[in-house]
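WARN no homologs supplied; continuing
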Amino acid sequence: MNTRKDRLRSLFGGQAGEDLAQTSALSTPPRPANEAGTKRATPSAVKAMGLSLGALSQEVEDARRLRDMLASGEQVVEIDPTALERSPYLDRLSDGASNDEDFEALKSSMAEHGQQVPILVRPHPDATKAANGIFQIAYGHRRVHAARELGRPIRAVVRALDDAALALAQGKENAERRALSFIERAFFARTLIDHGFDRSTAQAALAIHKSEMSRLLQVAEAVPLRVVRAIGPAPKAGRPRWLALGDLFAKDSGGITNEEIASEEFRQADSDTRFQRLFDRLKASAARKGESAQQKTDAIADGQGRTIAQLARSGRVTRLTIPDSAGEGFAGYVAERLPELYAAFAARGVSEK
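OK structure emitted
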């Protein structure tokens, strides 16, 4: 307990830290004793305690970061969230509550407790926009969206950042707070490269090694951005499944993909389900095409060269198809004669023996 109190005191400093440490200590219930002198906590109690400690740790971390900002001499200002534009470097595929199951909790927290940590912005690199008071977000896009919905100003630190510094700050914040999904990281890497950053800068922004950068770019090349935007972050899908989706998409002329992402069922599903729906449809289509490619079809013609039937062989199965153009009732006639034809075939086999 003393260690925890000391940590809180050191992070907050002075009486505030002591008060929070005392509050934390008082909020921890004593363990009642049973006949043996101890009682083990129930799983639900342990889970609740874990959640409480996790929230406390996040609050402590937020307070530390705010203290560091203030100690460095940076001033926190309030800005109208409508005067803020997104970073030019695509990272998140969420937009407010869309594709972000934690957004409503963030908005509720800001509504009840206010904004705990300022966002980071820079004056807009476009001189005209900068003159009109427009800023560009380095990080804090989710908090800005929540502030817009709440109709509140956003607290921000304004810092002069070049493009590289903006990308590095954006990547560092993503790593420390709500982590990007695999496909979000892949397209963040792709965006940085497309904007002219060298690979070392992109790797630093994502805090990854060279081999991981290659894997991210491989997936970003395989799946078109329009498809990724339609699916969303799909946090449960990793590199192998995204690569497999890219291979399946390459075999599709676009019809199945376009039909699926335009369907109401697809749009109403969560991001992981949208990924699975498209994956399953493309996989089934590829399987059917593979079966068709393995089939060998022979046309049967009459004396005038007209096709009256087709034999399609696939594995150990042969299918006879008779088109309507062969004549009305011809298929039924053939069906009636099949027992007779088979008997003749079988008899021929016996005589040949």
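Residues 43-71 form the longest helix (29 residues).
OK
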